[in-house]
Amino acid sequence: MLITGGGAHNDYLIRNIESELSGKDVEIIIPQKEIINFKEAILMAFLGYYYLNDKPNVFKAVTGSDRDHIGGALYKITPKK
């Protein structure tokens, strides 16, 4: 189980999760602080990478969509002269 976001900094929460999962075949992974704190930026970059490589980044199994598809838009910004 990968734990990220603010909850990963909450020792009480982590202890309770570990207690609930004790004896189960689940490994708890808490990544480096930089990944925890910047996961949203990392996820947006991941979605952008998939978009730019014509790979689905919206999955019906996760979102309830009718099908897997590519979400997002790319806008070219031309600097003013």
Description:
- The radius of gyration is 18 Å and the shape is flat.
- The protein has a domain at 6-54.
- The mean pLDDT is 90.
- The protein contains 4 helices and no strands.
- It has 81 residues and is mostly helical.
- It starts with 10 loop residues before the first helix and ends in an 18-residue tail after the last helix.
Determine the mean pLDDT: 90
- In helices, the fraction of residues equals 40-55%
Shape, per Cα inertia axes:
flat
**Helix/strand structural class:** mainly alpha
Low-confidence stretches: none
The biggest sheet, with number of strands, parallel, antiparallel or mixed sense and barrel status, is: none
Helical element count? Answer: 4
Rg on CA atoms, Å: 18 Å
Tell me how many strands there are.
Answer: 0
User: What is the string of SSEs from the N terminus onward?
Assistant: HHHH
Between the first and last Cα atoms, what is the distance in angstroms?
50 Å
Q: Work out the strand percent.
A: under 5%
Keywords, separated by commas or semicolons:
81 residues; 0% strand; mainly alpha; 4 helices
Describe how the helices and strands are arranged.
Elements: H1 11-21, H2 33-37, H3 39-52, H4 60-63
Brief write-up:
This protein has 81 residues and is mainly alpha-helical. It has a domain of 49 residues. The protein has four helices and no strands.
